[in-house]
Design goal:
binds zinc ion, Endonuclease, Chain A, single chain, three-stranded mixed beta sheet, alpha+beta, about 130 residues, 3 strands
């Protein structure tokens, strides 16, 4: 799914561009942290994951509906992903990181996106 090319902007790029425009400076996909987070803001001790709803098993989300073929395979695979995500996030929180998860569906359409990104600033700044 990440192979889609062309004019589609990836969700993580949407968030990065927004943060950059607000003068936040970040590292991306930094291997030193559990789960290779999409965005690390060292100054704010904040880590942001942008999760695709399907691959990361967003609860009660239309975009995370299982395919009808090979349902068992997908159930297992996606539940493994969820467990891994949860462990990574737990580990980071134990290391005292402020961890924020943004779901793809939250920033898919422009209206939701603007609201979600505005909230994100609060989440980054206020938790310190
Ligand atoms: Zn979703």
């Amino acid at each position: 799914m990440s192979r889609v090319r062309g004019t589609i902007t990836k969700p993580e790029e949407v968030v990065r561009k927004f943060l950059f425009s607000k003068n936040f400076r970040y590292r991306k996909n930094d291997n030193r942290y559990s789960g290779r987070p999409d965005i690390v803001l060292p100054k704010y001790h904040t880590i942001i994951f942008i999760h695709g709803c399907f691959w990361h098993g967003h609860q009660n989300c239309k975009a995370a509906k299982l395919p009808e073929t090979n349902a068992e395979f997908w159930r297992k695979k996606l539940s493994d992903n969820e467990v891994r995500d949860r462990k990574n996030i737990e580990k980071l929180r134990n290391e005292d990181w402020n961890v924020i998860v943004i779901w793809q569906c939250e920033i898919k359409n422009k209206n939701n996106r603007d609201k979600r990104l505005e909230l994100l600033i609060d989440e980054i700044i206020n938790i310190k």
